[in-house]
Amino acid sequence: MAEIITMPKMSDTMTEGVVAEWLKKVGDPIKVGDALLAEIETDKATMELDLDERMDLSDFKDGRLLYIGIEKGKALPVDTIIAIIGENGESFEHLLSGATPVTEAPKVVEAVPVAATTVSTPAVDTSNIKAQKIGMPKMSDTMMEGTLVAWLKKVGDTIKAGDAILAEVETDKATMEFDLDNFIDVSIYNPCTLLYIGIEEGKTVTVDDVIAVIGEPGADFKALLAGGVNATAAVVASPSATTPAIAEVKLEESVVETVATDGRVKASPLAKALAKDKGINIGQVKGTGENGRVVKADIDNFVPVPVAATAKPASVPAKVATTTAPVILGEESFEDIPLNQMRKAIARRLSESKFSAPEFYLTMEINMDKAMTARVSMNEISPVKISFNDMVIKAVAVALTKHPKVNSYWMGDKIRINHHVHIGMAVAVEDGLLVPVIRFANTKSLSQISAEAKDLGGKAKNKQLQPKDWEGNTFTVSNLGMFGIDEFTSIINQPESCILAVGGIKETVAVKDGQFYATNIMKVTLTCDHRTVDGASGAAFLQTFKQLLEDPIKLLV
Fold first, then answer.
1. CATH code at 347?
2. Distance CA 72, CA 25 (A)
3. Rounded Cα–Cα distance for residues 107 and 240 (Å)
């Protein structure tokens, strides 16, 4: 009997996975001992999906891969169908039609009624109407709605390339000219005319709400408005990345006519503001807008005419030094990097932690003089090189046994005090951050911790960690001291109650009995979830941790 294979949950934080590689193709045999189906990229590692570990394949006499439901490189939520296996030639289509809501079928069903009433079945056939709706444009990244300050065209006016400034719109950041040239190709209509205005000046509507209709004269725009968007129409959205940036200038007036030295000049509010900012006499600017109106483009393109040289009075020097500002040429560019599974998980989990846990921070300085001396002696006999981070992990583990409240989980309706000590060790990797776990760290020697930390760190960087390597930590240590960071704070890795941020060891000057002397200080900051750990509990833990590192012989007993 055919069976569905779903996206497996391969880590405790995994919510979706990517099929990095299919190791079988449709028709290939699936049998005991040869059941590696695919490589799955989770939020922490890329692992093989071995069906032998998940089901009994001995029930299939001639087991085959019957169906693949996701392309290589695609992501799907946990428990969504990715494949079907069964006997050679067995029918499986009924399994797809009866899929549970985790598949995409119900989404299509739910979308049908909406589409039928709004787009798919308009009351009037609008496919041949040579007109297009214009929506409120999104003119800033945070804009949700806009106010129509002034219409610069009226119904019946012609709109053409180079003369397509439709209106002035006030966004959440500025008042700007809405130039259709920056959004659509108005030359598709011959001629292009403003057929309809759907919002009065001073009114506010949300982004993409219809504010106008443009098209060929006589086009049935009423049917278009009643029947939805036709095949060639699209509500105007934000400009593309290649669209020239629109200057954001806050205006204090909505309608204006400026008086220049050579007579009365018509200008848009934006043009007037730009001219004032640039020190341009607007009376010298030739307007290219309707009826000679000065618009933004005229100010941008304006080149002052040099004043003819005149005879200078004898008292004025014959030569006046002038400077020319250098022309700086540059090109704006950017790159969008798709989120991988690890980065998605980091964003999700740390956001949940930061915005749900009431955190507080405790910072302490630790004198590392004795620890530095002890480390030299330890490494003379240790089979592996012991690092300061190994000493920190050991000191944390010992301190947690004496302060169990810090070694706890917030469980929503209860607090779980962990009697075992599993230390998570934050490791930076190319795609983000992994936290392999040193289990029962309080029972291990410094050399054992050092060897295990090096092994797990190497596996993390090579993406070779397995679930047993990263699950179950009760406390996390994040050390950026090797990067020259003196002090920082970390975000709690929930459901843990605390995380320790460790800075670098820095030589500094201290005072004792009125005498200056050189010493070595390391700063640490404990981030605590106030729901489980109070300030006094966190401070007591840090005091014990400090005592252990300042007298490291205590780590050996």
1. 3.30.559.10
2. 11
3. 30
User: Is 530 an active-site residue?
Assistant: yes
Q: State how far the Cα of 417 lies from the Cα of 403, in Å rounded to an integer.
A: 10
Strand partners, 194: 214
Q: Tell me how far apart the terminal alpha carbons of the chain are, to the nearest angstrom.
A: 61
Based on the fold, state whether residues 399 and 505 are members of the same structural domain: yes
pLDDT at residue 234, as a whole number: 37
For the chain, how long is the longest CA-to-CA vector?
A: 112
Residues 534 and 531: their CA atoms lie apart, in Å, by: 8
Q: Catalytic residue at 534? A: yes
Helical (H) or strand (E) element with 227: helix 221-227
For the entire predicted model, the pTM comes to 0.57
- Encoding tokens for residue 405? 């409240």
Find the angle CA(206)-CA(211)-CA(212) to the nearest 5 degrees.
160
Output the pLDDT for position 120. 41
Helix (H, G, I), strand (E, B) or coil at 544: helix
Tokens in use for 428?
């930076």
CB 491 within 8 A of CB 463: no
C-beta separation of 28 from 2 below 8 A = no
The Cα-based distances of 115 to 91, 108, 112, 544 in angstroms read 33, 10, 5, 65
- Domain range holding 188? 131-227
Distance of alpha carbon 60 from alpha carbon 75, whole angstroms: 29
Q: Is the CA virtual torsion 375, 381, 387, 393 positive or negative?
A: negative
Mean pLDDT by runs of 10 across the 557 residues of the chain is: 88 85 90 88 84 83 89 88 89 70 34 34 66 89 86 92 89 82 82 92 91 91 71 39 36 38 63 81 81 79 65 52 70 85 83 90 97 96 95 97 97 95 93 91 96 94 87 96 94 95 96 93 97 97 98 89
From the list 59, 62, 172, 534, the catalytic residue is 534
Q: Domain count of the chain?
A: 4
Q: Which of 227, 248, 269 is the last residue of a domain?
A: 227
Residues 487 and 523 sit within 8 Å (Cβ to Cβ): yes
Task: Give Cα 121 to chain centroid, integer Å.
Answer: 37
Residue at 235 is within a domain = no
CA 394 – CA 520 distance, rounded (Å)? 20
Q: What is the pLDDT of residue 510?
A: 92
Decide if 238 is inside a domain: no
Find all residues with CB under 8 Å of 412, minimum gap 6, and list them: none
Catalytically annotated residue among 50, 125, 455, 530: 530
The CA distances from residue 379 to 321, 386, 502, 521, in Å, are 71, 6, 22, 21
Do 347 and 489 reside in the same domain of the chain?
Answer: yes
- 167 and 266 share a domain? no
Could you tell me if 130 and 222 are in contact, meaning their C-beta atoms sit under 8 angstroms apart?
Answer: no
